[in-house]
Amino acid sequence: MHHLKQIITNKNNKLIILRFSLGVIFFFFGILKFIPHASPAEDLAQETIHNLTKGLISKHTGLLILASVETSLGILFILGRFLKIAISIALLHMLFTFLPLFLFSNTAYANQPFMFTIPVHYEKYSFYKCSLAFMADRGELN
Q1: What does the domain layout of the chain look like in residue ranges?
Q2: In sequence order, what DSSP letters do the residues of 69-127 get, joined into one string?
Q3: Going residue by residue through the chain (142 aa), what tens digit of pLDDT does each one get?
């Protein structure tokens, strides 16, 4: 048990665990989007992409692109490859992930403000992923 604690508390190992965890999250949510109706945020993601591109990208194609980006980011984080690029893309991805809170507030909130619908709970995970990516980029885990 003491050996495990030493492994976990080592700063380099913390960054590896953080990077790997972030990769698993991206990979999992990306894979869900490849499976029709598996992601609770599917409709919201499709609407957002469709509206942001003014209909130039169909809802289905937009979802496949998003799934590919998320899955690819997951793989890059898990493997620890091209991390500067992966973190930059992840932060841009998360910026767009927050847009539905402002663009589609009627579908983002339940009866009252700050009583979120299920897809918006996934937005919270984006905030966590964003924070983790910043920490991983800066190596700020002590």
Answers
A1: 11-138
A2: HHHHHHHHHHHT-SHHHHHHHHHHHHHHHHHHHHHTHHHHBSSSTT-B-HHHHHHHHHH
A3: 666 666 666 667 777 888 888 899 899 989 999 999 998 888 888 988 898 899 999 999 999 999 999 999 999 999 988 988 988 898 888 888 777 777 766 655 555 555 555 555 555 566 566 666 666 666 544 4
